[in-house]
């Protein structure tokens, strides 16, 4: 019997790319960069580790300079996200309310410090989640953070919901079943249970 559902964040619960791109562009302008990032640029790096994001978006910068810029950008993005939020996928709040009555709910993301908290604050979702973990706090890969959050909450049977093959790999490395959020940014490599919209989750979970 499933006791808990762990969620990826970007591409699964929300799409923050528009707000994030705008906040990063503000920093780039302030620091004199002749560059403007698009929503597509942000979508291309969603879920990636910080060093990979820097390499993808700012290949011309030395690693140290790139990470300094990255840190400045994510500090600004958290301020914007906490104030303005992102785009929740349809029926996320209503579906979380349904799931919260049956399962313990968690978030595990590759994000940086403050990002999950900004999400929960902006959209008033704190009450639905029992715990969360992310790379910025532990410096551990997603698979280890999934195990960490399940172990510290004494969960024997959980599932992970995410949208990319990286999420799929992390779930399998953590030893938990994977559910694909097919409306998100990526595709799994295996044939796995999937939902075409977030509101389909309660019915699928009952079948597993």
Question: Concise description?
Answer:
The chain is an alpha/beta fold and 208 residues long.
The end-to-end span amounts to 8 Å
Number of helical elements: 10
- Which spans have pLDDT < 50 for at least 5 consecutive residues? none
Outline, from the CA principal axes?
A: globular
- Give the ordered list of helices and strands: EEHHHHEHEHEHHEHEEH
CATH architecture of the largest domain: 3-Layer(aba) Sandwich
CATH superfamily of the largest domain: HAD superfamily/HAD-like
> In percent terms, what proportion of residues is strand?
5-15%
The description of the largest β-sheet is: 6 strands, parallel
What are its keywords?
208 residues; alpha/beta; Rossmann fold; DNA polymerase, domain 1; 6-stranded parallel beta sheet; 10 helices
Provide structural commentary:
This protein has helices spanning 17-30, 39-45, 50-57, 63-84, 92-100, 115-122, 135-138, 142-152, 165-174, 201-207, and strands at 4-7, 14-15, 87-88, 104-109, 131-134, 158-162, 178-181, 194-195. By secondary structure, it is an alpha/beta fold. It folds into two domains: 4-14 and 87-207, HAD superfamily/HAD-like (Rossmann fold), CATH 3.40.50; 17-84, Orthogonal Bundle (DNA polymerase, domain 1). It has a six-stranded parallel sheet with strand order 5-4-1-6-7-8, with helices on both faces. A two-stranded antiparallel sheet has the order 2-3. The chain is globular and about 55 Å long. The protein starts with a strand and ends with a helix. The mean pLDDT is 96.
